[in-house]
Structures
1.
Amino acid sequence: MADTLTITDNRTGKHYEVPIQDGTIKATDLRQVKVTNDEFGMMTYDPAFMNTASCKSRITYIDGDNGVLLYRGYPIEQLAEQSDFLETAWLILFGELPSKAEYDKWAHQITMHTMLHTNIAKLMEGFRHDAHPMGMFISTVGALSTFYPDAKDIFSQESRRLQTIRLIAKVPSIAAYAFRHSIGRPFNQPDNELGYAGNFLSLLFRMTELRYKPNPVLERALEVLFILHADHEQNCSTSTMRAIGSSHADPYSALAGAAAALYGPLHGGANEAVLRMLHEIGSINNVPAFIKRVKSGEGRLMGFGHRVYKSYDPRAKIIKRMADLVFEVTGKNPLLEMALELERIALEDEYFVSRKLYPNVDFYSGLIYQAMGFPVDMFPVLFAIPRTAGWIAQWEEMLNDPDQKIARPRQIYLGASTRDYVPKDKRK
Ligand code: CMC
């Protein structure tokens, strides 16, 4: 017998058999539940999509209770240990690890598309000196759609592949231009001899030397951070990418929207918020008082908690271990002691334990970024660079999914019923 859910409507006494597939019922199957034939039918109410699967996906798997994260079936720990960002991006986008020939061609194609059109540089120069780099990033990615109008051809696989290469290649350059603009230094040109993370470091930090040599520990740390941030299934920004893409907008416009969703302090802006929080706490002695304030509802412990993970975020574990390697090169971030003390107290405290609030990916990443010389407002940009691979993979999966249509939720209308317009002079 097929799995079904039996629903009894006590208003009418009717029974309904709703098929269960993949542990899920289709929300539209509930539409048959109605009292009279002219009714719209039953809907589900799910603000913030707490219990709604918006798609079927084969990209990323999270087991939030057990702290498991898989990209295309591969555990994040193995990828962080053995892969590099471009290989992981390929895996996320195309479903399998690349062969040697596929990898080499992919890395070459990305390297060949890292340069930005000079008018992009001019556009970016137009921002105020103190413009937030994430604002610059979002606007510039959106502007790319005007440079590549061929991107509108979203149903051409060839065009999608070209835009994918352009986006993954150019986001580090845009990010680096935003950084250089904010510190008043000229833009660097890409160095094709370097890998993805190494070239990014060169774009950011090269001064007058002819060739920038990235520190191998920091270069590898950045690759790992990029791997850890490459995708995370249906989070706020990815859902935004899918929603904008569902109207058949070009990928640059959709990605600018996704990056805007990432900017908020509850999502990709959290690592920036963690550092600001640590500065605000100021000293290890103030940690207990800060925790007390959080528990009384005055603000949140940033970098803690997650909609899906109800255990230690596996990415946070990897980052915490990596921090030691980075600090051996850069010197210890003085805020680390405070972060460790916050974690220690929170993990023993009933408030956090009962709500299953553990450190998430953003709790320690900011400390590493800061030690590597990034200003705090670059943190969300550093998140957006690798997440570009995930956003594009999810966007393509959505476009190729025959179940998908333009994203258009319903509402429960609780406003005024029909009433007549009252001219201004007749209003009370
Ligand atoms: N500090 C203190 N209390 C918290 C926190 C926190 N960081 N997170 C959740 N809670 C409490 C919350 O007040 C609520 O308590 P109560 O049941 O008494 O009202 C309970 O825990 C459940 O919280 P929620 O807001 O219903 O949970 P959510 O799934 O809607 O929110 C979250 C998830 C990530 C937005 C939230 O945990 C949060 O705001 N964390 C801080 C921001 C942060 O670190 N964000 C990064 C997320 S990971 C990377 C990414 O997605 O970009």
Note: The radius of gyration is 24 Å.
2.
Amino acid sequence: MKEKIRELLKQRNAIMLAHNYQPPEIQDIADLCGDSLELSRKAAATDAEVILFCGVHFMAETASILSPQKTVLLPRHDAGCLMADMITAEGLTDKLASLPPMPVVTYVNSTADVKALSTICCTSANVVQVANSLDEDEMLMTPDRNLAMYAASQTDKKIHTWDGYCPTHEWLTPQDVQAAREAHPEAVFMAHPECRSEIHKMADVIASTSGMIRHAAAADEKAFIVGTESGLIYPLQKANPDKHFYPASEKMICRNMKKITLEDIVHSLENMAGEVKVPEDIRIPALQAVERMLAVTD
Ligand code: 13P
Ligand code: SF4
């Protein structure tokens, strides 16, 4: 199956991108695995004709926003994001009408419609840099209230929040972290910014998925409690075979990130099935918000 996929990728002049939460067998054959920032950078830079995206719908949309001349395939159309579904363009328009004029910073974990109404996008890797890049001292940050509260703790900016969250990260409780710490007292606790703010306060490190991989590789410590979706344990372990990684909670699984199978990938490449394309009237304003983000990020 893996050889067949690599062969189909070659035939289609396609590149295969996979998020760090994807199942091991998918990560193993992808051309690039990464966090949302790295994947959007790669989607913007590749000269392949087809981008096969193994992740969730908003990620494929972001690739289509950045590379409209390419065919972007998402092997499972129902691989969505519960947080991205917690805000709509209409809801954002209503919220903005209730606030004084201010820029809108939107997490890439959002639909293209919402990005199109936003001033600038951000990811979990660059949210602080993006907030500080704005001239204004006050902004609305959507849709993740936890990411917004993390950014607020790291800047002097006044940040209004939208009441969205990622259920996979929201489920992590202080009691879970306490229990993991007691089981592994020597371990460094790494938390994703999508975790609740009481979890941020308990963390030794707060980072995006790829930020956690880089931190674990550079650290002298040998053991880590991983406060994000459990799929990240695989690339962490692969990059650091001599270190130990423990999930902060066994509950941290995003079902949408586990939907794509190798069979779905074969079907998608054979039939060019599952194309994701953002219409031009949405793509152009959404592109502005994504490009502004890339321009202010190191
Ligand atoms: P990052 O890859 O940016 O850390 O994002 C985590 C996430 O929830 C993606 O869906
Ligand atoms: Fe969305 Fe959370 Fe799943 Fe990421 S982990 S795709 S933010 S629901």
Note: The CA atoms of residues 19 and 55 lie 5 Å apart.
